[in-house]
Amino acid sequence: MSSIADPVIATPRSDSKPASASAPAITLPATGERELRLDLFRGMALWLIFVDHLPANILTWFTIRNYGFSDATEIFIFISGYTAAFVYGRAMLQAGFVVATARIMRRVWQIYVAHVFLFTIFLAEISYVATRFENPLYSEEMGILDFLKQPDVTIVQALLLRFRPVNMDVLPLYIVLMLFLPIILWLMKWRPDVTLGLSVLLYALAWQFDWYLTAYPSGFWIFNPFAWQLLFVFGAWCALGGAARMSRILSSPVTLWICVAYLLFAFFVTLTWHIPQLSFLMPKRLEQWMYPITKTDLDVLRFAHFLALAALTVRFLPKDWPGLKSRWLRPLILCGQHSLEIFCLGVFLAFAGHFVLAEVGGGALMHALVSLVGILIMWGVAWVISWYKHSADKDAAKANRMVNADMAGGSV
Fold this sequence. Notes:
disordered C terminus, globular, single chain
């Protein structure tokens, strides 16, 4: 069976020598063709997050949160952990802990700068709209009233990732998780399964002792890093050999039917949320055991729902599926390949769409139009970024050839 770990795990050769006792515990990622499935689902997650941040509309019913316990956030964090291990795992094995850590910290700084830039632009957008249209409710709805009251204190808290307007909670979580990636990779180089076990232990302790990070001016982080680290670490574990070791389990018919049964159960439960007349079908004891299914602490039911979706995806979507190179999926893949930029753009567009729907109004058609326009803008920006990077790389390569030729006394 072809799994999502195929491009990461080097295929053993028939003439290869047995692994020595000193071989690393994790498998060195194999270089080769880009894994388009990761880009596809990361792009899909970005689109779903954007649509979910808009007021409820027709397209909202096409997002997975209405049909089960998990949503696009789980997809985004899992793939972030997977790709981070994919990219920096090789540096950890080849260049060592210090060099790999330096590269990871550079990426953390890039994400942090993007978050601060997005925070600044987002505040400016909300403040302008609230002032221009004399509607202070925008400031209240987006959670920036404390900034307007005490901008000096609030800015410091924002730089410390403790103050965040509405819809700006994912990047701070990503920053914190990436900060601990060097330790995660170092532990996985030693014992990957033990590392995953420690992650599970931290998750359980966070639930048992109610560990969380506080937010400003009150409350806590919407995404608790002590809990969500499990999904990130699990993604890294899968990338560095875990998925390959699970291939027999994933290909088992028993696993298939367990996943299908659980997804149907989750669908039935969420159906009772949307159709209250069906709530009588839910046993009271089951409700008392299940609820609340918290997103903040990554409820076990949410995690299991994501695992079921991932298992079925790996089973039925091989890495060599021809559709991955279809022009119809190209917009999603492009957005997934430039996830940081497109995520920031999506947050900006979500408020813009919220403003348009609040001021202009309109029925289902207007809601759908705003959603589709936002998605088209995200696709267009991803295409421009891809085109620019491709052109810049070509120009840089040409310039390097010219410099090398000049140093050699010749010409290109």
